[in-house]
Amino acid sequence: MNKGGGGGKDLLVINGQAIRVFSEKSPENIPWSSAGAEYIVESTGMFTSRATAHAHISAGGAKKVVISAPSEDAPMFVCGVNLESYTPAMEVISNASCTTNCLAPLAKVVNDKFGILEGLMTTVHAMTATQKTVDGPSKKDWRGGRSALTNIIPSSTGAAKAVGKVIPSLGGKLTGMAFRVPTPDVSVVDLTCKLVKQATLTQIAEAVAEASSGKMQGILGKTEEMLVSSDFRGNPLSCVFDVQASISLNETFVKLVAWYDNEYAYSCRLVALLNHIFYTDSRRLGAGDTGKADGKSKLPPGPGATAAKDRPKCCGCFG
Fold it and tell me: Mean pLDDT throughout 281-300?
């Protein structure tokens, strides 16, 4: 940290790249325009409504805000699922949760191909910063106040219901819960559902493979190896379908297992969503408004990103 350097500006320097740093309690006090920042990621977890997140725009001078959490009233988007619904008129949007980003692509593939009558989801979720290191009070619920380091903690999650917001045909058909476990990273989703059409696990795996080489490339994948959670650390895919761990009672009642790095993969999707909305906005405004003559995004696309012309189709940070 270069505090006070550069004409009194606080700077964070990473690999030679200087990044302006502000220290403000409220979004409306952050002078984004002075740093030339137009597209903001709201990651504090405190300002998740459209009204509170909009303060970055109304007072700070930003153009768009992406909330890195579910939102009660902001439009919600999941890469590979519903990005085509985004319009430049939307100023505040949500990238949903890491669990929804894992569940929604898998649910979409299964629902599109075989149909889902109803389902229950369980996520076995790595501990997060909101949990307690030792037993203490919790505003949310009694169990939430117990030590994250020594317990498996049942918890609520809106991830399954949120799928209905990004896939309207699944509205009211899915719900779920979470178990918080004492591991630092990587989580796993169990989607147990009844199918409309009969399908073997092999057919479901084939449908996932087909989608992962098409519109969901860089977002969805599958594995047939006997892996464990730490093997997925640093994996950029939102959802990795585990063929060997999945089981079926019959051809219309299945339990589907999918892994996700709830930290890294979600961050990749944030970058992908930013690129998508910037590119979509730039197409509407014209190349002259993008900051570059060729109209390409000035946002960092991330390693292995596709060309700007392909981003709305690919959606993934990694191709």
Answer: 53
